[in-house]
């Protein structure tokens, strides 16, 4: 086999290759590897010869090793498969070829430790492998033709139920009727593992595990095969990549098994598909039925996150395994830094999953309200923002000067504190006492008093713990302007409340005027009926840094103050010193909104088995709503001078509406090939597109003077980018195709709400369908000029395009950006 010929540059190797080729009359090995070896010499012999030759030719490696993820060309594999070679053998051969070189080099005593180590091979959603390599080995590897792209492994982070009712799901009706719930849908959750004994994962009444399921229940520390049941049908742990970076996992701190020692994974899995549990609450708060969005779905837990985060190579291995096991939906409440799709391992694996029909749902990140912070933004992923429901946990701070302020807390003790003196900063302790960090407070100063604590430096519940330990009687947690009016409800260990940034400013102001100020904090438990939804300030924002031609995030679902399952070994504050234990806990983050969406996708899948991931995504997006329960536009918890409303760059198409998504009327479908075309249109090279396509790919040739338009991706929303300062007007024409999935004979008429300074025309204005499954196309032109824009910082204006027919309203947001 002409392994050597796979080298691109090193001419001496090419020569070597040529010699080998001629000796086996291999003939043009680059394009005819298979034909070469089969009719000549026995395969194994050729292979070894090549490797011998290679081993002699490679340079000496340096001692430090790093884990790399190697993406390879699938078409090369096809050629190899006709030689009956397993991918693993091919990868091992590649690694051997870049191995430590001179066998007799006496400088190298530590030969063993220098050999490349194969951690994982990837075959289902991407082609390639992960291996520990020295820098030299890495360099030789990148020279091999057939190796598309090599990236160092890295650590990603977690983005840390009543919401079903808020989402309009009702037992016995629609998506929660018997027939929809009976069909089998499997949700795979990549997270910190799971607590299998939790009541949310009992399997009473569930039928047999579907025959198509290929997963397993891996045993490990405090976890056995019997921990799975007909609800939790699979559990696996991935740690090779993590341990290669961080060293061995300390068994006293974490379970080297799928068991959850953090709480995050148990919470997210139960949000997506946990059982319906009546009378669930956290200390009586949020009392009611806790239920996964699709509570009859099966769950498969893939533990990829550990104490210090989640290694990319482990995540890839888990995605692979989950797709091979047979999951229908993947839920990932984690993410890394934004980067072009061809360098983003998660985007690459998600592409493979999409091609296998698996719906891929991800959290948008918690880096809002700063613009362009959205993560997980590939168009084949569903990117989920977080918002509030109408359920609140209100408190009131009453100052001795009569002023009152609203706040939020899950404190579960007395309903009211006494009127107590306030202390802050130097009246509470020493350096950093304003942040209430451990050791900064003076017991004599804070004893029996209410301490004001600024957000930042340590956790919110940790501040409460520090105040309590120092003898404080209460705490007022002060938002800074960046956190705005965001009101997290936390299960504090003492009477404590969060207040928004404006209340924080006033309270500090009054205190500085009058150090004798006193306060009481009152707690009102659980209330319903607040204006909602409201987009959370922390929810990451668009536009996407990597790709401005797709609106991101895509959608919002509840992600603030979410009640869901919690392991019995972890306190609700997650603090070691907090000895309280709960069955359900309330937490916030896009980590919590993502599994809501995963559950909704499972619901849609259960009534539309044959829909592609893109069709399900379109159904969820075009049926989303943009008005709140008070009939106003959905607002943003982050209020600026210019607006208090949410935009497509904070909530995408709006708030998910599961019942609407089950019957969307029309869908915008997208195939794998369409996405590859799209990548060509945003000027990715053939080589870069090949990485995502996992095979040698050539972008389609277009006529001279024409080019592929990014706007032609059949996405269910519109992002238009005009050049700021460009003279004259520019017109971009986008093409879309909709498939009729509603009523056989129906006409749709278009309605456009246009952003200021942009002309929009749609052709045709009416779409008349004659049957189900029929596809019709339309064109929409956006005309704008750059001349009115006075800043380079990027300005965005928004609108929408809606097809209305019968009772259907198929809505796409429009985001126009000048940059
Ligand atoms: C259940 O709900 C689905 C989706 O809304 C619908 O298609 C189906 O007809 C309903 N079935 C029954 C028996 O009500
Ligand atoms: C191991 O799992 C059991 C449940 O089967 C649990 O009760 C126990 O606390 C766990 N052990 C540790 C060390 O957490
Ligand atoms: C594991 O963690 C425990 C508790 O923090 C510590 O005492 C122990 O030394 C650690 N073991 C290793 C091998 O690091
Ligand atoms: C604060 O520090 C002390 C002493 O180092 C430690 O015992 C305690 O657990 C810490 N408290 C918190 C909340 O971390
Ligand atoms: C605060 O209280 C002290 C002692 O009771 C008193 O001397 C002082 O005048 C008070 N200051 C104000 C601003 O009320
Ligand atoms: C791609 O390259 C062409 C030619 O350089 C350029 O006109 C076009 O704006 C680029 N498109 C994108 C999406 O960057
Ligand atoms: C600038 O905007 C105004 C409306 O705001 C419009 O009438 C005018 O045509 C625009 N100028 C250019 C050069 O586009």
From TrEMBL:
<dbReference type="Pfam" id="PF02225">
    <property type="entry name" value="PA"/>
</dbReference>
<feature type="domain" description="PA">
    <location>
        <begin position="421"/>
        <end position="507"/>
    </location>
</feature>
<dbReference type="InterPro" id="IPR023827">
    <property type="entry name" value="Peptidase_S8_Asp-AS"/>
</dbReference>
<keyword id="KW-0378">Hydrolase</keyword>
<feature type="domain" description="Inhibitor I9">
    <location>
        <begin position="67"/>
        <end position="159"/>
    </location>
</feature>
<dbReference type="InterPro" id="IPR003137">
    <property type="entry name" value="PA_domain"/>
</dbReference>
<keyword id="KW-0325">Glycoprotein</keyword>
<dbReference type="InterPro" id="IPR015500">
    <property type="entry name" value="Peptidase_S8_subtilisin-rel"/>
</dbReference>
<comment type="similarity">
    <text>Belongs to the peptidase S8 family.</text>
</comment>
<keyword id="KW-0732">Signal</keyword>
<feature type="active site" description="Charge relay system">
    <location>
        <position position="191"/>
    </location>
</feature>
<dbReference type="Pfam" id="PF05922">
    <property type="entry name" value="Inhibitor_I9"/>
</dbReference>
<protein>
    <submittedName>
        <fullName>Subtilisin-like protease SBT1.1</fullName>
    </submittedName>
</protein>
<dbReference type="Pfam" id="PF17766">
    <property type="entry name" value="fn3_6"/>
</dbReference>
<dbReference type="Pfam" id="PF00082">
    <property type="entry name" value="Peptidase_S8"/>
</dbReference>
<feature type="active site" description="Charge relay system">
    <location>
        <position position="264"/>
    </location>
</feature>
<dbReference type="InterPro" id="IPR000209">
    <property type="entry name" value="Peptidase_S8/S53_dom"/>
</dbReference>
<feature type="domain" description="Peptidase S8/S53">
    <location>
        <begin position="183"/>
        <end position="654"/>
    </location>
</feature>
<dbReference type="InterPro" id="IPR045051">
    <property type="entry name" value="SBT"/>
</dbReference>
<dbReference type="InterPro" id="IPR041469">
    <property type="entry name" value="Subtilisin-like_FN3"/>
</dbReference>
<keyword id="KW-0645">Protease</keyword>
<feature type="domain" description="Subtilisin-like protease fibronectin type-III">
    <location>
        <begin position="712"/>
        <end position="816"/>
    </location>
</feature>
<dbReference type="GO" id="GO:0005576">
    <property type="term" value="C:extracellular region"/>
</dbReference>
<feature type="active site" description="Charge relay system">
    <location>
        <position position="591"/>
    </location>
</feature>
<dbReference type="InterPro" id="IPR037045">
    <property type="entry name" value="S8pro/Inhibitor_I9_sf"/>
</dbReference>
<dbReference type="InterPro" id="IPR010259">
    <property type="entry name" value="S8pro/Inhibitor_I9"/>
</dbReference>
<dbReference type="GO" id="GO:0004252">
    <property type="term" value="F:serine-type endopeptidase activity"/>
</dbReference>
<dbReference type="InterPro" id="IPR034197">
    <property type="entry name" value="Peptidases_S8_3"/>
</dbReference>
<keyword id="KW-0720">Serine protease</keyword>
<dbReference type="InterPro" id="IPR036852">
    <property type="entry name" value="Peptidase_S8/S53_dom_sf"/>
</dbReference>
<dbReference type="GO" id="GO:0006508">
    <property type="term" value="P:proteolysis"/>
</dbReference>
């Amino acid at each position: 086999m002409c392994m050597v010929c796979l080298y691109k540059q090193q001419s001496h190797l090419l020569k070597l290759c040529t010699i080998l080729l001629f000796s086996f009359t291999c003939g043009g090995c680059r394009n005819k590897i298979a034909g070469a070896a089969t009719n000549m010499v026995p395969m194994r012999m050729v292979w070894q010869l090549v490797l011998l030759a290679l081993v002699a030719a490679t340079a000496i490696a340096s001692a430090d090793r790093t884990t790399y993820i190697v993406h390879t060309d699938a078409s090369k594999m096809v050629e190899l498969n006709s030689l009956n070679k397993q991918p693993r053998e091919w990868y091992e051969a590649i690694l051997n070829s870049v191995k430590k070189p001179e066998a007799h080099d006496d400088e190298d005593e530590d030969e063993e430790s220098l050999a490349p180590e194969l951690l994982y091979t990837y075959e289902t959603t991407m082609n390639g492998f992960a291996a520990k390599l020295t820098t030299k080995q890495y360099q030789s590897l990148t020279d091999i033709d057939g190796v598309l792209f090599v990236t160092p492994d890295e650590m990603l982070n977690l983005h840390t139920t009543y919401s079903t009712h808020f989402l309009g799901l009702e037992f016995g009706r629609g998506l929660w009727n018997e027939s929809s719930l009976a069909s089998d849908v499997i949700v795979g959750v990549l997270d910190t593992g799971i607590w299998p004994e939790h009541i949310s994962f009992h399997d009473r009444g569930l039928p047999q595990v579907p025959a198509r399921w290929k997963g397993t229940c891996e045993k490990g520390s405090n976890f056995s095969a019997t921990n799975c049941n007909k609800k939790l049908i699979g559990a696996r742990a991935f740690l090779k990549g993590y341990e290669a970076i961080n060293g061995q996992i300390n068994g006293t701190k974490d379970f080297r098994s799928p068991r959850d020692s953090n709480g995050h994974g148990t919470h997210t899995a139960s949000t997506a598909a946990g059982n319906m549990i009546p009378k669930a609450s956290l200390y009586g708060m949020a009392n009611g039925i806790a239920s996964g969005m699709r509570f009859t779905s099966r769950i498969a837990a893939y533990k990829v996150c550990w104490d210090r985060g989640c290694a990319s190579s482990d995540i890839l291995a888990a995605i692979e395994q989950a797709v091979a096991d047979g999951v229908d939906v993947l839920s990932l409440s984690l993410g890394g830094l934004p980067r072009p799709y061809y360098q983003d391992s998660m985007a690459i694996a998600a592409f493979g999953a999409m091609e296998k029909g698996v719906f891929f749902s991800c959290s948008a990140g918690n880096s809002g309200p700063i613009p362009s912070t959205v993560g997980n933004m590939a168009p084949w992923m569903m990117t989920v923002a977080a918002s509030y429901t109408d359920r609140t946990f209100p408190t009131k701070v009453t100052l001795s000067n009569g002023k009152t302020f609203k706040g939020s807390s899950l404190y579960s003790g007395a309903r009211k504190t006494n009127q107590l003196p306030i202390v802050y900063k130097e009246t509470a302790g020493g350096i950093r006492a304003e942040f209430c960090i451990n050791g900064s407070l003076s017991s004599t100063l804070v004893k029996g008093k209410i301490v004001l604590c600024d957000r930042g430096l340590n956790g919110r519940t940790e501040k409460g713990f520090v105040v309590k330990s120092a003898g404080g009687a209460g705490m007022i947690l002060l938002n800074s302007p960046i956190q705005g009016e965001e009101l997290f409800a936390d299960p504090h260990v003492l009477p404590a409340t969060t207040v928004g940034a404006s209340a924080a400013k006033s309270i500090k102001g009054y205190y500085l005027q009058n150090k004798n100020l006193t306060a009481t904090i009152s707690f009102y438990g659980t209330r319903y009926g607040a204006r909602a939804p409201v987009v959370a300030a922390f929810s990451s924002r668009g536009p996407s840094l990597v790709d401005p031609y797709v609106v991101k995030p895509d959608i919002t679902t509840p992600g603030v103050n979410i009640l869901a399952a919690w392991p019995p070994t972890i306190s609700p504050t997650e603090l070691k010193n907090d000895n309280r234990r709960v069955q359900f806990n309330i937490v916030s983050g896009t980590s919590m909104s993502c599994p809501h969406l995963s559950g909704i996708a499972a619901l849609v899948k259960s009534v539309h088995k044959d829909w592609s991931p893109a069709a399900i995504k379109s159904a969820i997006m075009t049926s989303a709503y943009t008005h709140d329960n008070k009939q106003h536009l959905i607002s943003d918890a982050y209020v600026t001078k210019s607006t208090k409303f949410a935009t497509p760059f904070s909530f995408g198409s709006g708030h998910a509406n599961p019942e609407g998504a089950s019957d969307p009327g029309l869908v915008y479908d997208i195939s794998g090939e369409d996405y590859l075309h799209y990548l060509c249109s945003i000027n990715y090279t053939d080589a870069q597109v090949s990485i995502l396509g996992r095979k040698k790919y050539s972008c389609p040739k277009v006529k001279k003077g024409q080019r592929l338009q990014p706007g032609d991706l059949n996405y269910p929303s519109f992002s238009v980018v005009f050049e700021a300062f460009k003279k004259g007007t520019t017109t971009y024409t986008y093409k879309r195709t909709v498939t009729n999935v509603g009523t056989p004979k129906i006409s749709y008429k278009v309605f456009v709400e246009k952003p200021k300074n942009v002309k929009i025309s749609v052709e045709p204005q009416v779409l008349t369908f004659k049957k189900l499954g029929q596809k019709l196309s339309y064109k929409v032109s956006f005309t704008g000029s750059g001349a009115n824009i006075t800043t380079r910082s990027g300005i965005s204006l928004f609108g929408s395009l809606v097809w209305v027919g019968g009772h259907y309203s198929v809505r796409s947001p429009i985001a126009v950006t000048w940059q």
